[in-house]
Amino acid sequence: MTIPLKYVARISAGQSPPSTEVTDLADGLAFLQGNAEFQAIHPAPRLECDSAPKQAQKGDVLVSVRAPVGALNIADRRYGIGRGLCGIRAHQCDERFLWWWLHSQRPRLDSVSTGTTYKAVTAEDLGRLPFPSLSVDCQHRIADFLDAETARIDELRSLTQRQAVLTAERFIEQMRRLTTGGGGHGFETEVPWMPHVHKEWNLSRVSYEFTTSSGTTPTSSRADYFDGPHPWINSSDIRDAPIRYISKHVSDAALTDFSVLKLSRAGSLVVALYGQGATKGRVGILQMDACMNQACCSLTSLGRVSEEFAFYWFRAHKEGIVTQAVGAGQPNLSQELIRRLRIPVPAADTQKKIVAELSEAEEHLRAHNSLLQRRHALLVERRQALITAAVTSQFDVTTASGRNVTEGVSA
């Protein structure tokens, strides 16, 4: 048996004040326009508006009524709320049960959401949601159960994510050790982020071991420049992996009219000189002849240092390399800076052994990460299934504990 949510909770639709009255957060009333500031449980507000016409009180459940519809947070203080949110306050129900029950309603909200540009629901849609007709004591017991059991699952999710981070860090350290000949005594390099190199190896500038080139962006208004057969790499194409597929191409006319736009041969190493987030400093090895824009730099071996060895060396020392970036605002790398970097030069057979060992290690890393991602996805599914089963009384939470809490529950 169910009753409409509006009979057990008060639902307040947000309303947006004039934009001139919304300012950066200082000591005024924190304001949330939508779900952009949502975190795991409580929002992290960035704005304030003392004249916000609609407010949510501490303890209210904040529901996103615009994409992603149904995202949830709990108000940890009084907030002004914009039209992207509704505040729901428990009235004749347990407020923690209300929180968990709303998690189970996201599929239903998705099904009733409307809109062409973006999906949205209304306060009326929320008010019509079928709330289970359970005693407040029963709701309280279910909420206690879900508090404890979801905490267990969340801890497993956190440990899974931590394991993935540690595994990646271990591989970076392995790359760093092997590409510098670490593990024994070496000579000092005077490079802060690469202090030692194997005593029997040489150290040389990148410009002495590779030919380098960059590229440019042809005139965007000329459509004929972008309908040709030549792959044209942007920094977003570089992902610390072989570069096999490029979505953008340029024509022979572009190569003719822009002399800096040159084809680099397959097998060349490409470095991202700048880009958003972690893009800057990433590398990739071309699997086809290609040219690139000004945000990339290609390195073609002159013989002593292979592109494959350099591929792992750049990845191992990315953190140190990107500290060399210059410029106001968003510092960038440059072709000249890359050319000045000093890279170890082990014997050719040593390079091959290092590349083979790291390639095999990376295959194992990918397989391990795939298992971790699968575990995390299953935990997310199990968490949602457990919440839905508990709030709809599919099992008795008073007898469920520990290992058997999900017995009979399907994700």
TrEMBL record:
Residues 56-151, 204-363 form the Type I restriction modification DNA specificity domain. One of its GO terms (biological process) is DNA restriction-modification system. Gene3D superfamilies: DNA methylase specificity domains. Pfam families: Methylase_S. Keywords: DNA-binding, Restriction system. Belongs to the type-I restriction system S methylase family. It comes from Actinospica acidiphila. InterPro entries: Restrct_endonuc_typeI_TRD, Restrct_endonuc_typeI_TRD_sf, Type-I_RS_S_subunit. The keyword Ribonucleoprotein does not apply. GO terms for molecular function: DNA binding. This is Type I restriction modification DNA specificity domain-containing protein. Transmembrane segments: none annotated. The keyword Transmembrane does not apply.
